[in-house]
Amino acid sequence: MSTTEVLLQQLITGLSNGMIIALIALGYTMVYGIIELINFAHGDLFMLGGFLALTIVGMLGLDATTGNATTFVAVGGLVAISAIFCGSLNWTIDRLAYKPLRRAPKLAPLVSAIGVSFVLMNIGLFWGGLPMDVFSDGVAAAAPKDFPALASNKNLLGEASDIRFTVKELMVLVITVPLMIGLTMYVKYTRTGKAMRAVAQNPIAAQLMGIDVNRVIGTTFIIGGALGGAASVIYSLYNNTIHFQMGYRAGMDAFTAAVLGGIGSLPGAMLGGLLIGLVRAMSDQYIEARWTNAVVFTILILILIFRPSGLLGARLREKV
Amino acid sequence: MSRWAQSRASWLKPDFVFLAVALVIPVLDLILPGFLQIGSQMRQIFLFAILGLGLNIVTGFTGLLHLGVAAFMAIGVYAFAILSSEIYPFRFGFWGALALTPVVGALAGLLLGAPTLRLRGDYLAIVTLGFGEIVQDVLRNVETVTKGTQGINPLPYPNVFGYEFVTETYQPWYFLFLGIVVLVVALNRNIENSRLGRAFISVREDELAATCMGINTVKIKLVAFALGAALCSLAGGLWASYLGSTGEPGNYDFQVSILAVCIVIVGGMGNISGVLLGALVMIGIDSLVLVQLTRYLQQQGLSSTANVMSMPNNWKYMIFGLALVLMMRFKPEGLLPSRRVKAELHHDEPPKPADRLCPNCGYPTGTSTVCTECGATVAASS
Amino acid sequence: MKAAISIGLRTVGWFCLGSAVSLLGGCGNDSPANAREASPAPAANPKIIKIVSSLPRTGSANAQTTTLVNGIKMAIDEVGGKVGEFTIVYEDWDDASPQRGNWDPAVETANANKAVSDPDVMAYIGTYNSGAAKMSMPILNRANLVMVSPANTAVELTKPGLGEAHEPMAYRPSGKVNYVRVVPADDIQGSVAADWAKELGVKRAFVLHDREVYGKGIAEIFRRRAKEAGVEIVGFEGIDAKAPNYRSLVTKIKEQNPELVYFGGTTQSNAGQVAKDLVSGGLNVKFMVPDGCFENAFIDGAGAANVNERAFITFGGVPPEKLTGKGAEFYENYKSTYGSEPEGYAVYGYEAAKVALAGITKAGKKDREAIRQAIVSIKDFDGALGKWSFDENGDTTLKTMSGNTVKNGKFAFVKVLGQ
Fold first, then answer.
1. Which of A206, B80, C32, C371 could form a disulfide with B237 if both were Cys (CB 3.0 to 4.6 A apart)?
2. B206 in contact with chain A, both atoms CB, cutoff 8 A
3. Of B129, B308, B329, the CB nearest to A126
4. Using one digit for the tens of pLDDT, what is the confidence trace for C71-124?
5. Contact A121 B317 (CB under 8 A)
6. Is C47 exposed, middle or buried (0-12, 13-18, 19+ CB in 10 A)?
7. Bridge partners of C204?
8. Interval B175-185: pLDDT, tens
9. pTM greater than 0.95 (yes/no)
10. Which of C15, C92, C142 sits opposite B167 (nearest CB)?
């Protein structure tokens, strides 16, 4: 491979990983934008989406040999089911764990979110112990689970090409981009979207204007969770492995992306996700893989020190 | 009774209860059957109590959420190892290395704190979290200094006036660790009741007001950060000696940091006795109850590694998670609350007589007619 | 000694109740002996000898360690749970924790401490991970408690000159050897792996490792030997074992155009994902891994399609079904007892337990030092692995290695290596 080809390939890889990160980051940034809560449980919610998807795949007996048409429909179905599941779960969690704490000091819901994250992670551990074929009959619950390669490694640029743009990368693109455009339109043009922005700006003023703030917050949790659910299916199909602790790393990357882009800003989260994906790929290529994680977190800290509002975020004042 | 004696006596009460319990446990071990002997596991509780007390200065007193205490623990572990191991030129021995470990920790705390403490609450939490991740990777990758995942091994055991500690008998360790916990508690009590401690609390309660009263909040936060880091490093140093090794860098990860947060939150943020109780409850569940229950059930053939849900120790995070959620919902001030924090968290409820504040120093006086804090006379309850 | 500790504790406990603390400290110092006489429950039964094992029983190594534990149980059952006048009690301890999914240093240390302070424990079978062994070796050594490892392969645990200057003596504070292993070490395995790579016609190899004791150690030995054998090493990198994928790393590897990728690591440190991403990244080269991946969990985790005919696994010994003599008997007995195939390490568990039992028989008394001596001096042991001895470092004289590949989602024996 020539140097240019390597760079191009790393761009493709970085952007593909980045899109998945961005999709998760949206869930963080939406919730933070509206109630200023770092939703620690979001990564683990995402993880459960992956486990649900694998369970369904196992029940339907799908694998790499399944026909194209069936797979296509199945992937669409998985994304939808996982999104609905994670959206409603996120809404329920908000009702049970965060809503009662709206008026409490900020630390309370954050700690509650950490607690929820633990509970979800433990559910993931138990889920992996189900006596199903896809979970190796549940004998090693904590082990990583193989997710069948429903999206293949076929190179769309021809097998002779050194640069690879496979069905997997296409799948990421085809699912992620419409979701992001859809979300942007929704927030920009619908009534609920406007209400969301209003609540994010000033919840009290929004309430005075007749907006049902709690309903808007609920919707935000549903949408954020649903995006996480969709991301989990894409992640599983792209990496072909799920693990009950994958939520932590994915969540950290996504959260870093949200902060990098400017937490609370939707385009910021998308941009941040892509950038984190690219940084990871470039660090693997041009620095060393063992330093990549440290590089990402160093960037996070530097951003916070020198530009706490992120790349696209509005300058935030401490609310008194 | 002098004012001094009166105030000291009242604030030491719960601490003395813990001390008494701690002193009884090794005696009970002589009588109780094997599976109820908990003395040797108590060392972990003592270590986490120190870690919790370090975090309590930062999070409990000063109100800064710190999600990276494991990093300072790791720094303590490696500082202790490098200063005491035979393979490095320093060779300070157990006591020398242990004395220097908090200094190294405090320096690391200053290094991280200086540029970041201007940040708002949530952002600071994320910085500490990121720092925790970076420290792990640096320790793992800078192998010429840290030996990477090889670990620095073995490390000296404590040595008290020529008496070499051994692993077979836990009692010397027990009393050494207990003694250090007592010292740390005393230090914390003194900080709490000092000008510095009141400055910490004023920063937690209202930064703006604190600034107006002439407190340099950044400096105060930095001091809290450094003190917290020093205590966490001390816990790390003791941990290294207890393991006889550094273990590997990955062991000082987010889970450890969160465990410390749980200890402080569940016990009672800002309350020293609460933190001690938190360590007892959380680490007790983690390394005593669940472990023993798992072993017992396995011996009875009731649980097996092939069935993940049958093993009590696999329920650990479910229990911790639910504990955090339920605590925040129903008792956010913790099991053994600091009265100030409790008053703040229930500010929308009408103040009970117990919440009356001393007109002189603002400390809650309860039903007493004399302030336990400053000794001023308070009007009799109506 | 008693006086010294009470003085010491008084200085620590000066803050309050100084005298009470030192009083308790004094009696605490010699309490284990008192405890045994005073209370009936934990009393040592002179006719009971405990053998314990400390292995990762949680996480993806569980399937492997389950067969290993079965092997230990078989060995003890074969002698009817009795050696001479002693009843053998076996306890299966876990040194892993679910949140790590792997061995946990705090748990391993606690296990070692528990073993040395239980007067009935006369042999400690473990550990599975070399890193874990470093935690427990010095603790057990001080107590003269013999440790028989069925699976540790890191060289610095026993062999002078191959690790840090202070190794392995640092793990033997008493100066005596108490640690033996029935499995050949990595200096042999890493070298035969490199030779095998050469034999497979590889001219350029890229070496990855998981930055852990075992993985990095064996990767370095592979690199050294491969260079000597004339295989060009085009890269040497540590991976992040928790990364979601290694796609960009694969591109970096691809740029170097290797014919083989060697990964020093285990199933638990993400070998499966590396195998997957080599395929996803379009790098259709040979993928060689050490015995840490010789378990079905590796194939499950990687997905059979990604490793079939591509993965090459070296293993210290031969696969169970290729064992001969007593080993073949073991294999048949295992299958009939447990109704399933043993994994690669089951026979080492069996052999380790046999060694422990032989030591107890030879010593003829319940005495840690006597049993330790009996075990480290074992020569010409006629076991399931063949006829072998322990050398002066506690290493087995066996050097048989096997090369395996994966066919149709199952490990397939290729050849014996290093002979």
1. B80
2. no
3. B308
4. 999 999 999 999 989 999 999 898 887 667 788 888 898 899 889 888 899 999
5. yes
6. exposed
7. C232
8. 999 999 999 99
9. no
10. C142
